[in-house]
Amino acid sequence: MRATHTRAAILGQARGAVAIATVHLGEPGVGEVLLRMEACGICHSDLFVCGLEKLPLAPVTLGHEGIGRVAAVGAGVTEWSVGDRAGVTFLGTTCGKCEWCAAGRERFCPRQTNFGYTLQGVLGEYAMAPASALVRVPEEIAAAVAAPLCCAGWTAYGALREAGLQAGQSVALFGYGGLGHLALQMARHQGLRVAVSDPSEEKMAAAREAGAEGEARNADAAIVLTAAKAAIPQAFKALRRNGTLILVGLAMTSYELPLVDTVLKGITIRGSYLGSRADLAAVFGLAREGVVRPQVQMHGLDEVPGLLEQLSAGKIAGRAVIGF
């Protein structure tokens, strides 16, 4: 039996309230796949979308960190079959023709679509998705564990790779939430010396217990994994000469660049967005090996509006994941 309707977390209008409502799905069209969702994480990017003054798609189902089973396939879909396990990330479709797609950097495609933003998301019992946007997920990884890896884990891994550090060097992580706790695990696995900075004493205690050491200063790289405005200047000050500042957290605020220090100390500033397809496969591999293990809090779909409020207030440790 296939669902033509589903309950989902819906943002009805820009800066509106998120509500759990029933939406129409219909049958999968050409190139589409119907997914019976198993789990979906709640990400800060969902909050970012909720705070935008204008939405490219409204109403929009939120959610881009999902694991599901194929329930039905549309015409022309040959790479997926009913029962297959699929992962959904923020990155939806890409043009496949531009210089970034040709170079394996599809995440920078100017014609990309994104789940929970320009495409309907997957924070619901069922979801419709373009088959070309789905990723294979190892059967050995539980859905609640795999879901955060599709965004938080992928993004954390990509940011560490952008930093270009070698074993023995130091990295300072700013923000110890859904991304930060995974970045700490990955950085330690890479043999890096890791410091963590977060305004929450509870999160700092958890970071120290997980292996964070020392203060965030004189680091070879600093990675800002939070949207908090104060984090960027703090991370800049934590860098040593020739250090690298990696910006990950999305916010509409501006940052004044300390030009003199940037030039005279040879500071590199880079933005990091998701990662390559190979990076995501590597993240799944780390999870299979037990190197990376998301700290997960399981919840029901009806809890999504309240969880978004808690996430905005910085009160969620690890990752809140909705189970279906």
Describe what you observe in this structure.
- The protein has 324 residues and is α/β, with parallel strands linked by helices.
- It has 9 helices and 15 strands.
- The strands form 3 sheets. Strands 3, 5, 6, 7, 8, 14 and 15 form a 7-stranded mixed β-sheet that branches.
- The mean pLDDT is 96.
Based on CA inertia axes, which overall geometry fits?
A: globular
Number of helices: 9
CATH 4th-level superfamily of the largest domain: Medium-chain alcohol dehydrogenases, catalytic domain
The structural class is alpha/beta
What is the total number of structural domains?
A: 2
Question: What is the C-alpha radius of gyration, as a whole number of Å?
Answer: 19 Å
Just give the CATH class of the largest domain.
Alpha Beta
Rounded mean pLDDT is: 96
- Proportion of beta-strand residues: 25-35%
CATH structural fold name of the largest domain = Quinone Oxidoreductase, Chain A, domain 1
CATH architecture of the largest domain: Alpha-Beta Complex
The run of helices and strands is EEEHEEEHEEHEHEHEHEHEHEHE
Largest sheet: 7 strands, mixed
The residue fraction in helices comes out at 25-40%
Low-confidence stretches: none
Distance between the termini: 17 Å
Number of strands: 15
